[in-house]
Amino acid sequence: MEHLLSLKDLSQTQLLDLLALAKKIKANPADYNQALAGKSVVMLFEKPSLRTRVSFDIGINKLGGHSVYLDQQNGALGKREPVSDFATNISCWADAIVARTFSHTTIAGLAEHASVPVINALCNLYHPCQGLADFLTLSEKFDDVSKVKLAYLGDGNNVTHSLMYGAAILGATMTVVCPPGHFPDGNIVCEVQALAAKHGGKLILTSDVSEMGPQDAIYTDTWISMGDNTSMAEIEAKFKPYQVNSELMNKVGANYFMHCLPAYREVEATAEVVDGEGSLILQQAENRMHAQNAVLVTLLG
């Protein structure tokens, strides 16, 4: 691994190794408290963040490293100065770059010009760190993740893409249920289908919630990320049939609920489900740090 830009760049062995390392770091943090001793990581954030910023900042500290946070007050990437100059200058001082950007083009530009590892902390196409945390969480509940049946309901987005790649590489079955016009990117779907065929996984796409079939876990994300110009009334009219509630969970036999957060209770999922016994949301949130630390140790340790 030179960078982590998308889960699609990982082999099955690399993905399984990252999950195994994350479990080791989580179980025995003291063994890794000097893994990044003397290392500095610059975090470039174009977008607001709670989990990503805090989990990276504290995680780097727990590994004995030092983080520097830069937001757009220092100038938007590519506007105040070229992305290439950000990458080459930071490479003079830091040992890695973590970037949360609006466009994947920015992430790719950083990786192209940097002489240090670049980690994608979210862009418009991918959210690999979230995907790693999610499959780490599932691997803590299931001995063989390849046997897991995971369903995603809602807007096909960067989180959906990363979940699809991860499931395909691990050989799991994933069902993606979206309203017409809100499916994942077509090119990504084709790549995922090829990966699933290679590793014995399966990708199912449908707009009909009744076609989901039995599931182990149901995942959803906020509907509001559709865009600022879309009214809430319009969003609800289109997405209400895709709300995750107890009736749906029971119907498909799903024991676990997943969400990358922030969650809007009684919108994409009911409070009963979000805060219920089968909710894995806080385990996912905690695992962001452990999964990201595994990436940092792999790239820099």
Describe the structure.
- With 301 residues, this protein is an alpha/beta fold.
- The protein is built from eleven helices and nine strands.
- The strands form two sheets. It has a five-stranded parallel β-sheet with strand order 7-6-5-8-9.
- α2 links the parallel β1 and β2.
- The longest helix is centred in the C-terminal third of the chain and has 20 residues, at 281-300.
- It is globular, with a radius of gyration of 19 Å.
- The model has no long low-confidence stretch (mean pLDDT 96).
Strand content: 5-15%
Query: In what order do the strands lie side by side in the largest sheet?
Result: 7-6-5-8-9
Low-confidence stretches: none
Question: How many E-type strands?
Answer: 9
Shape: globular
* Residue share in helix: 40-55%
Based on CA atoms alone, the radius of gyration comes out at 19 Å
Structural class: alpha/beta
Mean pLDDT comes to: 96
Q: How would you describe the oligomerization state of the chains in this entry?
A: single chain
Can you write the helix and strand succession as a string?
Answer: HEHEHEHEHEHEHEEHHEHH
Number of helices: 11
Secondary structure elements and pairings:
Layout: H1 12-27, E1 40-45, H2 51-62, E2 66-70, H3 83-93, E3 96-100, H4 104-113, E4 118-122, H5 128-141, E5 149-153, H6 158-170, E6 173-177, H7 186-199, E7 202-206, E8 217-220, H8 232-239, H9 246-252, E9 256-259, H10 271-274, H11 281-300
Parallel strand pairs: 1-2, 1-3, 3-4, 5-6, 5-8, 6-7, 8-9
Features:
5-stranded parallel sheet, 4-stranded parallel sheet, 11 helices, 15% strand
Summarize the structure.
The chain is an alpha/beta fold and 301 residues long. It has helices at 12-27, 51-62, 83-93, 104-113, 128-141, 158-170, 186-199, 232-239, 246-252, 271-274, 281-300, and strands at residues 40-45, 66-70, 96-100, 118-122, 149-153, 173-177, 202-206, 217-220, 256-259.
